[in-house]
């Protein structure tokens, strides 16, 4: 016994020594021919781990020998350095002339990278994350330095947290303003929530889940004060601008894409099985009777978790001609959650067109989408506690109980019973449309009028059957149900006059804007 006790501290000490020697701190300065570069993104290749240089171009990152550091900065060629034994890696970056002429969207207009004065990051479709993408924010996850993107849970269509400038508000929403094809999306909830007694409320859903990721051409992020200069207080947490695809093919092109994916729980808890449960009760001097030992052997994690199969299909037709272009898309996706009774089904349709008239002086543009999102919700209410939450029930249920939805576990909840006798569904119809007319008054002066609509109609039905067992608040024998409806509509009218003039060594851009937003 003494020998084994001595081995444990020695093992812990070895692990501590190993963890210290495995990583090293690498620091340095990133600059160009004119001096230090602030805001350069440094990531470890193949991971999402990264940092950003400070105002003086300094950075510090924890990496291992053999790791490849990737240095990215808009308008500059990407640099790579392999970490060796050195603690300091200084990098000099060179400008990329082709990238400097790249067009980026900056709110009410666009500019080139070299002319952009604010902190803006733009990710094009060719640089999006590959693989199975279920929601738009996953396209740029790990692609934008200084932007933190995370999901509130692993459920299909779960809420998303995007932090551009950290946590700016203690009590208010810290998410940025989302703008899709020039239309600012509603800042509040657009999906009806449910709250059934004993189960708790369903968490907020992803505000971008109605968009088909395959329709997106680029995503730009405005990080600094220019966001508030353009969008006012709505852009205080930054702005995420989503631009959808336009027709490109001269001959007309059909495109079909499909993918199938499989997912499962990455890790489960090492819980007691039936024999271990009985042995532990005996060791603790607790009775082993017909109540504590029912005679079955059930791994409740296997009951509530599953191997999920998901699929996405997209069909599009695009064409461009001398006077304009158009693209029509249709998408269908079914994302199945790894928790039983959870899945998200999305049907989307989109039409984008541009047409020029009057010797190309007048341009008509239309971007419109319709989507239907159906959520099946597992009983995982965020305020349910261990009672009423299917995961808490699975971790605390007696492993000798049978996998029988009608078995009464007494004061504890039977997970099979909760799955069989609860149901939650949310159905959301979303309409997004923007029509604009732009007229070239002169070669330098343009006037534009836009009308936009963002409408969401959502209903939630949550019910707990009278057959449910183990819950509180009088639900067993009575049952509870809730029906919630949420209708949100924003109407936008905008008028802009812009003047652009290039001189020999300078360029002048002037924009006058007026908008009128109606929220219903």
Question: Could you explain how this protein is built, in words?
Answer:
- By secondary structure, this protein is mostly beta strands.
- Among the domains are: 24-93, Immunoglobulin-like, CATH 2.60.40.1120; 251-519, no CATH class.
- The chain has seven helices and 28 strands.
- It has a nine-stranded antiparallel beta sheet. Strands 11-18-19-14-15 form a five-stranded mixed beta sheet. Strands 1, 2, 5 and 8 form a four-stranded mixed beta sheet that branches.
- The longest helix has 21 residues, at 2-22.
- It is globular, with a radius of gyration of 28 Å.
- The relative contact order is 0.11.
What's the total count of β strands? 28
- The helix fraction, in percent, is 10-25%
Shape: globular
Helix segment tally? 7
- What proportion of the residues form beta strands (DSSP E)? 35-45%
**Global Rg:** 28 Å
Q: Any low-confidence stretches, pLDDT <50, length ≥5? A: 1-22, 113-117
Question: Biggest sheet: strands side by side, in what order?
Answer: 20-21-22-23-24-25-26-27-28
Mean pLDDT comes to 82
Beginning-to-end CA distance, first to last residue: 73 Å
């Amino acid at each position: 016994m003494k020998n084994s006790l001595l081995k444990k501290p020695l093992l812990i000490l070895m692990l501590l020594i190993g963890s210290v020697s495995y990583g090293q701190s690498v620091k340095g300065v990133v600059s160009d021919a004119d001096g230090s570069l602030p805001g350069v993104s440094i990531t470890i290749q193949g991971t999402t781990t990264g940092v950003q240089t400070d105002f003086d171009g300094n950075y510090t990152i924890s990496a291992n020998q053999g790791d490849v550091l990737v240095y990215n900065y808009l308008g500059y060629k990407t640099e790579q350095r392999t970490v060796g034994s050195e603690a300091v890696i200084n990098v000099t970056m060179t400008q990329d002339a082709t990238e400097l002429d790249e067009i980026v969207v900056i709110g009410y207009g666009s500019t080139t990278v070299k002319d952009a004065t604010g902190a803006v990051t733009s990710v094009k479709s060719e640089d999006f994350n590959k693989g199975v993408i279920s929601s738009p924010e996953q396209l740029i996850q790990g692609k934008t330095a200084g932007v933190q993107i995370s999901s509130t849970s692993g459920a299909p269509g779960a809420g998303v947290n995007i932090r551009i400038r950290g946590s700016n508000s203690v009590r208010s929403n810290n998410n940025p303003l989302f703008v899709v094809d020039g239309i600012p999306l509603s800042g509040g909830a657009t999906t009806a929530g449910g709250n059934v007694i004993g189960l708790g409320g369903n968490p907020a859903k992803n505000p971008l889940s109605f968009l088909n990721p395959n329709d997106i051409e680029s995503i730009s992020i405005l990080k600094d004060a220019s966001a508030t200069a353009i969008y006012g207080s709505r852009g205080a947490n930054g702005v995420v601008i989503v631009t959808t695809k336009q027709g490109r093919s001269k001959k007309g092109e059909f495109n079909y894409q499909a993918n199938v994916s499989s997912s499962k729980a990455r890790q489960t808890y090492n819980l007691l099985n039936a024999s271990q449960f009985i042995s532990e009760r005996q060791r603790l001097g607790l009775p082993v009777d017909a109540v504590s030992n029912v005679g079955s052997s059930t791994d409740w994690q296997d009951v509530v978790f599953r191997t999920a199969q998901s699929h996405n299909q997209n069909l599009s037709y695009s064409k461009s001609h001398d006077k304009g272009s158009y693209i029509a898309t249709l998408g269908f996706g079914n994302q199945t959650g790894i928790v039983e009774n959870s899945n998200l089904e999305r049907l989307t349709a989109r039409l984008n067109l541009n047409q020029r008239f009057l010797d190309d002086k007048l341009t008509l543009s239309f971007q419109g989408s319709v989507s239907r999102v159906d959520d099946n919700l597992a009983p995982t209410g965020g305020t349910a506690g261990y009672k009423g939450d299917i995961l808490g029930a699975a971790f605390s249920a007696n492993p000798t109980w049978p996998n029988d939805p009608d078995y009464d576990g007494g004061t504890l909840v039977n997970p099979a019973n909760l799955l069989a006798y609860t149901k939650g569904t949310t159905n959301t119809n979303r309409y997004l449309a923007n029509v604009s007319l732009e007229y070239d008054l002169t070669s330098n002066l343009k006037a534009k009028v836009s009308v936009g609509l963002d409408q969401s109609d959502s209903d939630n039905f949550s019910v707990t059957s009278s057959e449910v067992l183990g819950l509180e608040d009088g639900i067993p024998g009575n049952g509870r149900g809730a029906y919630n409806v949420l209708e949100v509509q924003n109407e936008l009218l905008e008028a802009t006059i812009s003047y652009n003039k290039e001189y020999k060594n300078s360029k002048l851009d002037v924009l006058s804007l007026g908008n009128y937003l109606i929220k219903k």
